[in-house]
Amino acid sequence: MIAYVFSYQAFRLTGEYAMIETQRKDDMKKKVTRTEKPFFSVIIPTLNEEKYLPKLLQALTKQTYRNFETIVVDGHSDDKTVEKAKSFVNKLPKLKILISDRRNLSHQRNLGAAEAEADYFVFFDADVDLPVTFLQKVHAHLLREKIQFITTWLNPDTKQTSGKVITAMYNVTIEIEKLIGKPYVHGCNTIMHRDVFFRVGGYDELLTVSEDQEFALRASKKGVKLTILKSPKVIFSLRRFRSEGVFSVVRKQMQANIHMMVKGRITKKLFSYEMGGHVHDRIHQNKVGNYVRSIERGQKKLLRSVVQKAKAISKSSFYA
Prior knowledge:
Elements: H1 2-35, E1 40-46, H2 53-61, E2 68-74, H3 81-86, E3 95-99, H4 105-115, E4 120-124, H5 134-144, E5 149-156, H6 161-179, E6 189-193, H7 194-200, H8 211-221, E7 227-236, H9 239-244, H10 246-262, H11 277-319
Parallel strand pairs: 1-2, 1-4, 2-3, 5-7
Antiparallel strand pairs: 4-6, 5-6
């Protein structure tokens, strides 16, 4: 009996030691992960994105590949974007929050790149979403193939057919434009080696729109080949299409593309194409306001009609 108790105690202590040792090794791995140079620098320019940014940051916390840093570059948001970002400090492998002196998409991306530590920059818009294996699959591609300038196909943020059609058209368009020597990369989802970024000269801060396409064209002229991955796919936000209308957005994008091909850089305002989460909220509020006002007008018209009929009935009853 004594031998049994001794054996049990020895087994229990050995098991506890093994658990402690395993925990110690896990803690060491975490420390190494936090101190080693990141492979990716995920750069996210923001402006009033308190509603969308947390979803993207949450998706980054779930990435199966962990060797990355996240850099949020905020353009002095009027909402709680920065506060929302700060709440992820202990949830992400490494998080930097920069405040830009200008509300300019290109400037904010360039500022993030200047502070980035990794060899590969990943530029996301604040309203995209990611599958959990996105960075892992991109990392695997980069290890297998020596590619330096990348974008991926998109999936829509909706199950509606219209959304699937829009992203399918985008995926086909970037393939065609690459074939004809006019590569197009959507700024919401661009990956590049740091050498490419600085050799091309970063994003042009003087442009009003299409800074992503202009960067791709400059890169192409310097001999940088664009690689388009069909997988993994970024989940693309269609909020602009929903707030402005599909026809309006497509018309603006076609106008910008034609201008880029015929006249080059767009340094003057061709049309209204504001950035930031507040833009879509304002448009939505205007639409709701217009809808409410139309209902109110209808109610007033109906009320006048009822009053007129009541007066007519009252008069006919009086003379009767």
